Amino acid sequence: MKTFEEKLDQYAELVVKIGLSIQEGQRLLINSPLEAKEFTRKVTKHAYDNGCKHVFVDWKDTEVNRLHIEKASEERLKDDLPQWEIDKFTSFAENHDCLLNITGDDPSAFKGLSPERIMWVQQNRGEKLQAISKAQLNGEMHWAIAGVPTAGWAKSVFPDKEEEEAIDALWEAIFKTVRIDQEDPIAAWEEHNKSLNEKADYLNEKRFKTLYYQSEGTDLTVDLHPDHIWIGGGHESTFNTYYMPNLPTEEVFTTPLKTGVNGTVSSKKPLSAMGSLIDNFSLTFEDGKVVDFRAETGYDTLKQLLEIDDGMKFLGEVALVPHDSPISNSGIIFNNTLYDENASCHVAIGTAITMGVKDAANVSKEDLIERGINQSNGHTDFMIGSADLNIIAETNDGQKVQLFKDGNWAI
Fold first, then answer.
1. For site-directed labelling of 288, which of 32, 63, 184, 296 has its Cα 20 to 30 A away?
2. 8 Å CB contact between 347 and 382
């Protein structure tokens, strides 16, 4: 049986070799919570062992960030990124380097703070970090997201456990989602990636025009972009390398037509956004745009999320995930989008995944909008899949195929 240290080391190796797929001479920037220092050090070691030129770490502290949002002036919150920080991110994007975001913050870390003040920070960062956002969406750099438990996150997932016990339980759950419990995790991921690519190949061959979603609280029609591309598992970069941004991942995804979404969709899992939880919510679309919304929990946060800019009122991604999948079958609500989105079909409001559209890389924002590819300074996934979800796909010539039945693939 593997020790915790062995599992942690294999996890770090997996992130470097499969997730980031670091190439000789690339640099790596890690955004890491203070609580993830042990894991960050192991990632750093494996990065250097695999040819990384230089590893940089940006440490973050949720309490400090909360104080900034609470205490800083309105003027500062609306302009809180210095030029040197913008230049740093731009440099990594322009040099085709690597970025690792370690997620694990308390999902309610900013509870009680003004959603408007949080929105100002997100608006500012979205506007000023467009270079790195575009590089990620286009596949111009290697990037990955991986989770590390913090006390606040672990207690939100396992509220009945003591803090240390909750952290241990969350670690074990994470290890299972990324297949560390298997004898050879890297080989297991290579096989899993092959399976996801097969699903994407089928969808790309069929060239479906429209998806019809039906479940309790959901009656939604989504027109896919005419030049859409389905992507599953790893991504091909613009410089002919291969990497896998999400660990874990169970999805195949693509880009909808901005104006082609109509009907109502209901969330099936809580959404952690802007430092708060939004739960039991629904969005109603007409000609692509959100025209009404409801939420039992986090209504004000959802309202501010939709007001980051006009693009946040349109969809930028649709993703298919079977209900019968490892994360879903665990029965755990992770209160973290990286994990919960891979337990459920989901969609995203905000900017489109440009690599999900043919010939959309290195195109101006104006031209993307003209082509019906949504643009925004935000991108937020939320979960809509459930055991009663049915999806009918329709081709351009009117042929209909049952894509999902009772929450799972029907093909």
1. 296
2. yes
pLDDT in tens, 330-362: 999 999 999 999 999 999 999 998 889 998 887
pLDDT in tens, 174-210: 999 999 999 999 999 999 999 999 999 999 999 999 9
Count the Cβ atoms, other than its own, within 10 Å of residue 195.
11
Q: What is the pLDDT of residue 134?
A: 86
Q: What's the half-sphere exposure (Cβ side, CA atoms, 13 Å) at 268?
A: 24
The pair of structure tokens assigned to 15 is 């992130």
> 141, 149, 38: which is closest to 99 by C-alpha?
141
Count CA within 13 A, CB hemisphere, residue 143.
Answer: 20
Q: Say if residue 326's pLDDT is above 90.
A: no
* pLDDT tens for each residue of 100-137: 999 999 999 999 999 999 999 999 998 899 888 889 98
Beta strands in 61-147 (DSSP E): 98-103, 142-147
Query: 345, exposed or middle or buried, with CB in 10 Å at 0-12, 13-18, 19+?
Result: buried
For 380-393, write each residue's pLDDT tens digit: 999 999 999 999 99
Dihedral angle of Cα 310, 65, 158, 295, to the nearest 10 degrees: -30
Phi, psi of 157 (to 5 degrees): -85, -40
Tokens 């996150």 belong to which residue? 153
Of the chain, the percentage scoring pLDDT greater than 70 comes to 100
Both tokens assigned to 350: 């905000």
142-147 and 98-103 beta bridge pairing: parallel
Helices and strands (H, E) in the chain, number of each type: 14, 20
Q: Which long-range contacts (CB under 8 A, 24 or more apart) does 149-155 make?
A: 149/35, 149/104, 149/174, 150/33, 150/35, 150/36, 150/62, 150/104, 150/105, 150/106, 151/35, 151/106, 152/62, 152/105, 152/106, 152/107, 152/108, 152/109, 153/104, 153/105, 153/106, 153/107, 153/335, 153/336
Element (DSSP H or E) covering residue 270:
none
